[in-house]
Structure formats: structure tokens, C-alpha cells
Amino acid sequence: MRAIRGEILYFTGDPAGGSADALRHFADGLLIVRDGRVAEAGPAEALLAKLPADARIEDRRGRLIVPGFVDTHIHFAQTDIIASPGGQLLEWLARYTWPAERRFADPDHAAAVAGFFCDELLRNGTTTAAVFPTVHRVSVEALFGAALQRRMRVIAGKVLMDRNCPDFLRESAEDGDAGSRALIARWHGRDRLQYAVTPRFAATSTPQQMRLAGRLLAEHPGIHLQSHLAENRAEVAWIRELYPEARSYLDVYERFGQLGPRSVFAHCVWLDDTDRGRMAATGAAMSFCPTSNLFLGSGLFDLAQADAAGVRVGIGTDVGAGTSFSMLQTLGEAYKVLQLNGQSLSAERAFYLATLGGARSLYLDDRIGTFLPGREADFVVLDTAATPLLARRSAACGTLAERLFVLMMLGDDRAVAETWVMGEPAWRRP
């Protein structure tokens, strides 16, 4: 058993729903962990009396303790091309992504990047991520191996592409299916790892590959599906040419049995109300990726329309078109995107989306994203005085909401003092 004392914040629901109980905050709180899981979280004064005399108490007073961040869309194979300039989506793929992903046929390269990638997530307070590797089985093996070593919760799967990509990244639909099945058998459900069927996007998969991907999802209850959807207007037009029989880009995925619980689609910028209604009805989720949408000039995500339709929404950094591993920085950019769209994002809602909201998008809220009893004890210790400006501005704040807003606008990896995984320290700031 361990107990961590500090300012504690977590969510039991979406604060935008108006429930007074959705946000729980204890200025002087205690998080009690047993066997890697939350036993209790609440006011320190009440809970300290329950502890045995020899209980180990980690004193983090003056720091803010929140559940580990949940990144619902990120590419580990694009770590080395982050901040590569020029071009919108389709040009960026050809110029940077394909050459970078080619290197992941090499197991040593894949392992080196996977280790760096997982450490970078932890350094930024991210403990759960839905991740795109490459078409190469060794890239998936490397990522799962690195995550397993660190006990992180990672959802990933071999990328499926059998057309409209370079020959060195293309494989047959049948080979992609066979490779996915082998990886599911080896990795899905191993410790905290989960498999995701991963068609890159409808343009790079033939109808046959899309059929096989839908069949994989149907035949393996509990696995996920991840892909890209309606990111860029030129991409949407291309999908219309490739699948003229479909009502919309989203309809392509639905025709092949890929919409449902545990399906998460990145971007979702250029959708209509019918699309959003189908996502809500089937239980599919959106990953809002603000930094990459701005960087590639893709468009502005419409959170208000997603909320009105009742769609699950999480936050994705989308590295490498996304420009930061930091969920704090990503939340700050999400606020700006919504401002441009005539909407507002409260700090409370932002931190919900980065924690419990992300967990709900991935259908993992029974395990992560909050400090309710029995949940896995992944959490981040945040330092609101990590930089001189952050310290000065935070000191002038009068409310929790204001402090959270300042943290997400001025904070970055430097504000992450510690990251804990399953009740044990996984990273500490030197």
C-alpha cells in the first residue's frame, strides 16, 4: 500500500453535463493505492486516520495530482519527422511519412524509436495511448515490447495498406490479415496491451482489405479499430472518387463493418450531421487532434456539433504531424481551435477530455481515467510553478478553474514533475 498526499483532481463525468459531482477536487487530498489500483481518494484529514501506523506516505503537497493523460491518436513511427515543414496532408505523407516508415522494417531501428517514444509519453504525463506503428510486424512487436516493459496501457496494431502507397509499404490484403491475426494471438490482452485493427485510411485499402479488417474486428470481441476520417478536404474528395457508391467518407467504414464500440477515428473535421449521428448511434469515437489540424491546415474540429450528436470525444496529439507530445500544450491548442470556430473550451472540460473523456472514447473508463476505487493507479504529479512565468501567473489565480486554464495555456513537459504507472513511479523530473 502507498498513499500520495497533495492537491487531487479527477472526474466522474463530463463537467459540461452540469452535474455537480462530475468534478472532484481536494485541495489537501490523499490518494491511497493498493496493489497498483486506487483504493480510495478523498480529503487527507479523513483518510489519514484510516492508514496503519507504518503506512508509507508520499508527500506532494503544493503539487496537483490528476489521472494519467490518455492520448487517443498518435504515430510512434513519426517521432523522427515531427516539425517537418511544408505541405498539407497528402503531400506531407508522400514527402515525410512514407520514407520514415520504410525504416521500420529494421528491428533495431523500430526498437530504438519505440523505447524513446514510450519514455517521451511518460515524460509528458501520458500513461495510455492509441498508437499507429507501420505495416511491419516488427514495428508492432517493438512498440508492444517497450510498453510492456514500462507497464503502460497501449492500444496498437499493424497498419494495413494494399494500395495507393509506395511498393515498399504495400502488402496484399491477405498478408495484412494473416499478420494481424498473428499479432492479436501474441499480444492482445497481455498485461495492459490491447490490439487495434488499423487500416490507415480508406484510400490506402482496397475493398477486399476493408472487408477483412471488418471481419477481424467482428471475430475478436474486445479488440479495437483505429483509422483516419475526414481530415482534409482533398482527402475527402479522393475517397469520394474511390468509393462512389458510399454516401460519405464515414459510410465507407460502416459498409465494411468497422463502426462500433472501441472504434476510434482521428480528426473528423469534414463531417455532416448524418455522419455524427451514425457515430453516436454505433458508439464510435472521435479523436480531436488540434495541433496536427493546424499544422497541416486541415480545418477546425467542431466540438459543439459532436456534443450535440452525443459522440464520444477524446484528445490526440497526432505526433508527428502533431507538434507536441504534451497533452497540456495540445489542450491549449484545442482551446484556440474552438475559439476560431466560435466555441469555447473550459479548463475543466479540457482536463476531462484528456483523462476520463479519453478513457471513455476507448471504452476503458472502467479501468483508467479517474480515481474511483478499483481503477488502475496511473497518475501525473503536476508542478504549477515549473517555470517563472507559470509560477507568477498561477500565484495570481483565485479559482481552480483559472489555475487549470493557466496550466493548459502556459504548461508543457516542464510542468510534469512525476508520472506514475500502476501505483509505481515511472518517470521523475531530474
From TrEMBL:
CDD domains registered for this protein in UniProt: GDEase
SUPFAM superfamilies documented for this protein: Composite domain of metallo-dependent hydrolases, Metallo-dependent hydrolases
Keyword set, alphabetical order: Hydrolase, Metal-binding, Zinc
Annotated Gene Ontology cellular component terms: cytosol
Top EC class, one word: hydrolase
Gene Ontology MF: a single term: guanine deaminase activity
Domain Amidohydrolase-related, residue spans: 65-424
Pathway: Purine metabolism; guanine degradation; xanthine from guanine: step 1/1
Biological-process GO terms, alphabetical: guanine catabolic process
Cofactor binding note: Binds 1 zinc ion per subunit.
Record bears the keyword Cytoplasm: no
Gene3D superfamilies named among the record's database cross-references: Metal-dependent hydrolases, Urease, subunit C, domain 1
Catalytic reactions of this protein: guanine + H2O + H(+) = xanthine + NH4(+)
Pfam families referenced in this protein's UniProt entry, alphabetically: Amidohydro_1
InterPro entries, A to Z: Amidohydro-rel, Guanine_deaminase, Metal-dep_hydrolase_composite, Metal_Hydrolase, Metallo-dep_hydrolases
Lipid biosynthesis is among the record's keywords: no
Requisite cofactors: Zn(2+)
Family (UniProt): Belongs to the metallo-dependent hydrolases superfamily. ATZ/TRZ family.
Record's function text: Catalyzes the hydrolytic deamination of guanine, producing xanthine and ammonia.
Protein name, entry field: Guanine deaminase
Organism: Aromatoleum tolulyticum
